[in-house]
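Sequence in, structure out. Go.
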Amino acid sequence: MLPPDFSDAVSIFEKLPQEARQWAEGLHWNERRYVLSLCHILCAATSEQQAEFLDEYTADGLVYRLLEDYDSKEKVKRHLKRFRIKTKLTESLLRRYIRQFYIHCAQDLHRKPDCYLETAVRLMGSTEESNNAFNYTLGFELLKMIFQMSWLQHEKLYLMQKNQQDFIIKYIKPIQQTHKLNGLIVPKDKTKFFAKRDYYVRVPELTTKKLVELTIATFPAKVVTDFGFEIIRHPNSLQFDYDYIFARETDEIFRV
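Output:
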């Protein structure tokens, strides 16, 4: 059932941006038939079919817009290089991340993929919204990197941050909880020196597919997007020293 404010054509047109309304009202009758046919097919399709269509219909335009945004693209590339992440911002990568962003948002709302349309409209509606695709891409790549760290490397990373407790609660604890729930890192005999050494320095083994799935399951899309946005806006918001974090493990951390 349609909501009350959609009970007539006038209210529907009022929901459109002014340019879209003028375009729709200015169409020739034959062109209006095409629009109505598309609306009919979309309404009759399953949510999965709608999602597939919207992905194909919007991705090209969004990818083109992102590739044309040279400044934002270069910022993301510089940050990936800074964190020594080898991911390249290719057209195919951005297309995959746009689709993943749709899926991630849908899962957060506990809805079927019919909310792809809402997300697609937002992303296509303004440059500010489409920049979220860049923010999401950077945030997700960083979280994947942290997901693949050992717990000792986690400790080195959060000790570098200005607000250590906030960083632990927001990023480290959720990742370590997922590690435990999925048997990637299993802490046991915590008080025993050699037992701690074994699990604390262990690097989780993950396939690319599993890494993506666990990252999506662990963090809402908004957290991922906000993480990337914060780093793009304030580059020093995440302190990072690759050589220190990924140096050969020592016994220093086990002296306590």
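Check: The first helix runs from residue 9 to 14. Residues 32 and 105 are 32 Å apart (CA to CA).
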